[in-house]
Amino acid sequence: MTEEAHELQPTEAWAPTKVALSGTQLKRMAVQGGFAVDETTGQEMIRSLQGVIDSLEERWSALTKLQKSPPMSSTATARWVSEHMHGTATDAQGLLTQLQAARAEFPTYIEAIELAQRNYRERDTQNQRDLKRIDTEI
Q: Half-sphere exposure (CA, 13 Å, Cβ side) for 1?
């Protein structure tokens, strides 16, 4: 293996990407009332997430082909390139790995947004009551 090829090998420094705010965390925030979103914005967010989920579902069989090393010639370079391509799809930072994580996480985001919409409606209703109460007190 050449020096250049060796430098392209994955290293310990390639740590898995941590989701900034997981669906579970967002859902917990919504359950505790710390996340609220209006109906229109929430529906747009859900529509966008559902679109990604649907797209992933439609293409999943094609995407899973990335789990295998692509066939190439039997030279050392071709074998290395094939394994490298496979690794970039399936390692902790890989495309397929990240898409699988998103596929699993998005439904929880949708649940959190639905809870946040309920929070918004409840807050809005409470604010209206408070304003009416203040108005009658004045």
A: 11
